[in-house]
């Protein structure tokens, strides 16, 4: 049965609303407090938006892109520039602040560039005559980024469904669900959620994803809210569950995908991919086209390193000598040879990635 995006919108209603834009106010669900507290916070200026991204109150590649898009609108609403030249200066400044908040996910710079370029184009071709008109158009553009992301996820979910059978168990990594995308659906978790909504029996194995625990705090919370069977494991149990035949396929998200098929995603993804490859388990990456970076090469990409105390402690409780030296990279790069296919809203990309990524992304 082939379903359309419209039909899926009728069948699947997201249970979580992590990013809300209403009456010119941006409100986010603070992911640093989940699942213990559900607190929504208003982000009132560009600095608070950048801080929320940096401290991961909002996280996940598409979600930080969407948030930054609204952040660009907030910069104009706050500063109220007196003319269009001033507005472009303000947007350029806001973009620099937002872009520097986290380095690895490309969706952030993609979204701020899209907002700034849209503003420049609207002014150049005379579509807007004053700052108020520009703000109105940029609000529409930010909403468009959100809506396009949601529709892309539905489409990815539909393609991903082709890779799922009734009774399957999917291993994931981190949280690539609706919390990570801001829409309530997700990328890697979209096929699972759609399968569940269509009555298939599917379950997920979620590694806890040290040190920030996106798996145990967010993926588990999100799937339990959808009544989807989920089993939490330690990161160190990944090899065993695959070896024991408990996993039918691996589905993960991505923060950046290069033209040759290298996939940057949460630390631990590389290890899952190598083990899956060795054991003949399909390894799928699900990501929207906004996650592709056709310009850079592996060595150009900065892998974010976070506070060593994230490793020395677990949510504030010490688990190592106070002054132990720590290395805390939070993303890794999975080489293309370990990836079975990359699932996007424009279709499923198979190897050779060096040829097929460019063809699909530029389609
Ligand atoms: O550090 P995070 O929590 O922002 O990392 C998130 C991930 O690595 C996700 O897998 C990725 O952003 C894809 S989200 C749909």
- Per CATH, what is the topology of the largest domain? Rossmann fold
Helix content: 40-55%
Strand content is: 15-25%
The largest sheet is: 7 strands, mixed
Averaged pLDDT, please?
97
**Main structural class:** alpha/beta
Name the bound molecules: 5-S-methyl-1-O-phosphono-5-thio-D-ribulose
Based on CA atoms alone, the radius of gyration comes out at 20 Å
Discrete helix count: 13
CATH architecture of the largest domain: 3-Layer(aba) Sandwich
User: Low-confidence spans: pLDDT under 50, at least 5 residues?
Assistant: none
CATH homologous superfamily label of the largest domain: Translation initiation factor eif-2b, domain 2
Question: N-to-C terminal Cα separation, in Å?
Answer: 26 Å
The level 1 CATH classification of the largest domain is: Alpha Beta
Number of strands: 16
Apparent shape? globular
What can you see in these coordinates?
The protein is α/β, with parallel strands linked by helices and 363 residues long. The chain folds into two domains: 5-153, Four Helix Bundle (Hemerythrin (Met), subunit A), CATH 1.20.120; 160-361, Rossmann fold (3-Layer(aba) Sandwich), CATH 3.40.50. It contains 13 helices and 16 strands. The strands form four sheets. The protein has a seven-stranded mixed β-sheet. The protein has a four-stranded mixed β-sheet with strand order 11-8-9-14, with helices on one face. Helix 2 (46-54) runs antiparallel to helix 3, helix 3 packs antiparallel against helix 6 and helix 6 packs across helix 8 (190-197). The protein is globular, with a radius of gyration of 20 Å. The two termini are 26 Å apart. The mean pLDDT is 97. Bound molecules: 5-S-methyl-1-O-phosphono-5-thio-D-ribulose. Residues 59-62, 105, 174, 176, 180-181, 186-187, 214, 253-255, 265-266, 330 line the site of 5-S-methyl-1-O-phosphono-5-thio-D-ribulose.
């Amino acid at each position: 049965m082939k379903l359309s995006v419209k039909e899926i919108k009728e069948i699947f209603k997201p249970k979580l609303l992590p990013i809300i834009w209403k009456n010119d106010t941006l409100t986010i669900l603070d992911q640093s407090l989940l699942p213990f507290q559900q607190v929504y916070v208003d982000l009132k200026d560009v600095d608070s938006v950048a801080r929320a991204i940096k401290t991961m109150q909002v996280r996940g590649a598409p979600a930080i892109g969407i948030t930054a898009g609204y952040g660009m609108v907030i910069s104009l609403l706050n500063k109220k520039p007196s003319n269009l030249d001033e507005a472009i200066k303000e947007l350029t400044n806001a973009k620099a602040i937002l872009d520097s908040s986290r380095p690895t996910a490309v969706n952030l710079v993609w979204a701020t560039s899209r907002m700034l370029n849209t503003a420049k184009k609207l002014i150049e071709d005379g579509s807007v005559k004053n700052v108020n008109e520009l703000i109105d158009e940029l609000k529409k553009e930010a909403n468009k980024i959100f809506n396009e992301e949601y529709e892309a996820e539905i489409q990815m979910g539909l393609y991903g469904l082709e890779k799922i059978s009734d009774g399957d168990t999917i291993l994931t990594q981190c949280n690539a669900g609706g919390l990570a995308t801001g829409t309530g659906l997700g990328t890697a978790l979209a096929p699972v959620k759609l399968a569940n909504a269509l009555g298939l029996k599917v379950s997920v194995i979620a590694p806890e994803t040290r040190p920030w625990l996106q798996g145990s705090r967010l993926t588990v919370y999100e799937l339990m809210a959808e009544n989807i069977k989920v089993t939490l494991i330690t990161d160190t149990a990944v090899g065993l569950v695959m070896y024991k035949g408990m996993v039918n396929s691996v589905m993960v998200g991505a923060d950046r995908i290069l033209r040759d098929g290298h996939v940057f995603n949460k630390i631990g993804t590389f290890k899952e991919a190598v083990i899956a490859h060795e054991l003949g388990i399909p390894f799928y990456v699900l990501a929207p086209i906004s996650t592709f970076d056709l310009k850079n090469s592996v060595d150009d990409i900065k892998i974010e390193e976070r506070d060593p105390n994230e490793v020395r402690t677990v949510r504030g409780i010490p688990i190592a000598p106070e002054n132990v030296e720590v290395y805390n990279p939070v993303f890794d790069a999975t080489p293309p040879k370990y990836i079975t296919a990359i699932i996007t809203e424009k279709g499923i990309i198979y190897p050779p990635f060096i040829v097929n990524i460019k063809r699909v992304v530029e389609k």
